[in-house]
Amino acid sequence: MNPTSTPQPITPAPAPAANRTSEGAHNGAGSGGGSAASEAELRRSWLDARTCSRWLARPVPPQLLQRLYALASLGPTSMNSQPMRLKFVVSDAAKARLLPALYASNVDKARAAPVVAVLGMDLAFPALLPRLFAHKTDAVAYYEGKPERVASTALRNSSLQGGYLIAAARQLGLDCGPMSGFDAAAVDAAFWAGSTVRTNFLCNLGYGDRSGLRERPPRLGFDEACEIL
């Protein structure tokens, strides 16, 4: 990606994929008395959204991937560091480089997905802080000589951006299938060789085939996972 490229304009999201089916409110998340529009957004992005492993033979146009990044890039990161870097693997040639690095259980999923996003983290992100966080003149110095701080910030914030990417993809009508079953060194060699980027995780993108979805597994309840202090 070119860090100086002009951001794509953000326009209203298209309608969600036609094969979506409602699963009902989950864990109380569907209640709250919001407007019909907000309820529709909740359903599209959360209540009816599922992790997909099977995919329809429907391509994702490059313009939609550009809009996806434009939306995801708006989410906050520490010092506006934006360490996430993306390779959108679409072509057969690119898939041929990726598939040998995947665990066996993920090969068919990635082969069938219209897009596999390789989410990387750039360990050289501090070099861009004079432009991205210009008002803090000592931002680069905060990371100089501190490789552990650089690595932890890159991992934490690229993971955060990956979450934004998934949320934005769902709002744009795409389904997602994030994956962590791969040989990171092999993916690095295939897609980030000679750079300061290291792979964080992968995410299949496209229009999911929901015909074989299992019932959604349980989520922890509020009292199990949260505490108000």
Name the features.
about 230 residues; alpha+beta; NADH Oxidase; four-stranded antiparallel β-sheet; about 35% helix; globular; disordered N terminus
Verbal overview:
This protein has 229 residues and is an alpha+beta fold. The protein has a domain at 53-208: NADH Oxidase (3-Layer(aba) Sandwich). It is built from 8 helices and 4 strands; from the N terminus they run ααβααβααβαβα. A 4-stranded antiparallel sheet has the order 1-2-4-3, sandwiched between helices. Helix 1 (36-47) crosses helix 6 and helix 2 crosses helix 6. Mean pLDDT is 89; it is low at 1-26.
Short description:
By secondary structure, the chain is an alpha+beta fold. It contains eight helices and four strands. A four-stranded antiparallel sheet has the order 1-2-4-3, sandwiched between helices.
Task: List the topology elements.
Elements: H1 36-47, H2 62-72, E1 84-89, H3 92-98, H4 104-112, E2 115-122, H5 129-132, H6 147-171, E3 175-179, H7 184-191, E4 197-206, H8 222-225
Antiparallel strand pairs: 1-2, 2-4, 3-4
